[in-house]
Amino acid sequence: MAGALRGRRVLIGLPGMGWRTDMRADEKVVQGSRTYVPVMSESEWYRAEAEQTEVFAPMVPVERVWAEEYGLAGTTNLDGDMTSRLVSLDGPPRRNPVAALDADVITGRRVIQILDGGGERRDLRGVTEIHTNGGGDICVRVTTELEWYRWSWSGRAPSTLEVPVIQLWVE
Q: What is the dihedral of CA 5, 9, 15, 17, to 10 degrees?
């Protein structure tokens, strides 16, 4: 838990019990001899940031918080071998990105756009499944996570971007 935590994606939980995902952290707080991390759902995080408001963030003991790391594209196992999917309950499981063409569902999921220059664009959500646009290209419509969550609290449809499916990975 070294380094800045504000805004980082985190998971909370207990080894052997289970994990809660789609959370964001604020900076660590020391109370007495214990260190805590204020943690909130991503939707609350984005609303607080967009509207510059205070939100309730439970203080989770630091030993129950894991900061997410970026996954590595192309390392998924899609061959159906059940034993290769077994994980240790000592820590959260790794979730490596899957090519959008291989994903079972895209709508609502985090997606990564691989840019032409070799970079990537993260903090996106899929808003549609794979479809053919008016020009015959196979695409997915995406939006920023801020727009995705704003849609839930305001009801205002997000602005979206049509991205070729070959540029997308699903987290």
A: 130
Both 101 and 164 in one domain: the answer is yes
**Pair 13, 58 in one domain:** yes
Torsion of CA 97, 121, 111, 168, to 10 degrees: -80
SS3 of residue 148 by DSSP: helix
| Same domain as 166, residue 100 | yes
| pTM for this prediction | 0.83
For 64-86, what is each residue's pLDDT tens digit?
999 988 755 444 455 567 777 78
101 and 47 co-located in one domain: no
83 assigned to some structural domain: no
Quote the CA–CA distance of 84 and 94 in Å, as a whole number: 13
Question: Do the domain assignments include residue 60?
Answer: yes
Write out the two tokens for 80: 């159906």
Closest CA to 168 of 128, 112, 120: 112
How far is CA 125 from each of CA 3, 93, 110, rounded to the nearest angstrom? 27, 21, 5
Domain residues for the domain of 120 are 96-170
Mean confidence (pLDDT) of the chain:
90
Beta bridge partners of 14: 18
Place of tokens 């071998």: 81
Domain count for the chain, please give it.
Answer: 2
